[in-house]
Every structure is written in structure tokens, then in C-alpha cells.
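We emphasize that the prediction below concerns an isolated chain of 216 residues; any contacts that depend on oligomerization or on bound cofactors are therefore not represented. The input was used exactly as deposited, without trimming of termini.
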Amino acid sequence: MILLFPVSFFFYVRSRKNAGETVNWTVVLFGLFTGALVSGFKAFFMFSSPYNGSCFLWYALDVWLSFGFPLIAFMIFFYLFSSDDTQTRFNSYLSFVIPFFTVYFIYETLAMDKPYPFFILFVRPVLYLCMILGIRKSLEILYRYVKQSSKKTLRDACLIVAETFIPALIESVWYYKISLILLTVLVLAYAAVSLVRTVNIRQIKDEFLSSVQQVL
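Result of the prediction step, given as a C-alpha cell string:
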């Protein structure tokens, strides 16, 4: 499942080409480079061990610092220092984030002690892909507020930060073995909500009906 992000990026590029849009490959390379840079820095200069205490929220915070915080930090950095216009910066979100996580996720997984748990190999990547896609939808709303200089801009920016905590909280449920049923429900519910927020249901319906009419 460490190939989930490269495969997802492949389909993202295809969808952009099918829509007649181009991918900013400079941003893609910057995402890959940043992922490698952060991974290298953590490997050679950070020697802190993962939290193994009994506090649910502290474990979630430790996980968030590994995955959610870098995402937020580099999103802010990219937005503030990119020379592109505001719309281009928002539109380049996936072009940066998925390549970044392609490298960074592989490092974080391989850096763990073996044997790798099923959750880490298969569930965690899905959770963070859902998070990334969900935040993309939130950024579309945030961009509209930025254009309108709305007072809701700060509120929605805080909500995006809060969204990055959700996978960490779900992982805490797994780590402390609170309930397998609860964990399954949370993972499926989060994936379903992300799918509904991301997929254009009306477009899929129209394309499906058009295909049926052509067959008939």
C-alpha cells in the first residue's frame, strides 16, 4: 500500500489531462524534493522515539506531528512564498502534497520496527489519502472566502487544521485497541465521507446515463 500515493497521483494526472488541464511539474518536483528533504532530516538529525505512553491524546498528537503538521507547515510555506497567483497556488495543492507523501510515507513506514502491522501498511495510507482529498475540497471553499475577503476565512483555515487530526485520532483507537468494531466504523465512515466530498456524483450519474443511452 506504500504505492497508493504514486498510483493516486497517476490517476490525478490522467484526470487533469482528460479535463484539458495541465500539471505544474515544477510543483511536483518540489513536492518530491521536499519529501526527500524532510525524510533525510528526520533520519539523520532527529532521534526521538515514538510515544509509547498511556495517554490517548498524546499518542494522537505524536502521530499528528509526524504527518499532519508537515502537511500544514509546507502548505503555508508554499502559499506564502510561491510566485504564482492565488488561484494557481490553491490548484497546485495535489500536485505538491501527493508527491510529498509519496516519498515521506515510504520513509515513515520503513523507519518503523518490523514486523509492520496491518493497520500501518494498509489502513494508514488510506486514511491519509482520504484526508488529502477531503482537504482539497475544503481548500476550494477557503479560496472562495479568500477572494471575497470573508470573515469566514480564518474559521475555515482552522477547520482544515482540525481535519488533519482525524487520521491521528483514528490511529489512536487502533493503537490502544479500544474496539475493533469502533475502529472499523470510524475508518469506513471517514472513507465514505471523503468519497462523497471528493467525487462529483452528478457528473458520474450523467456519464453513466450517457453510456447507457449509447448502448441502447
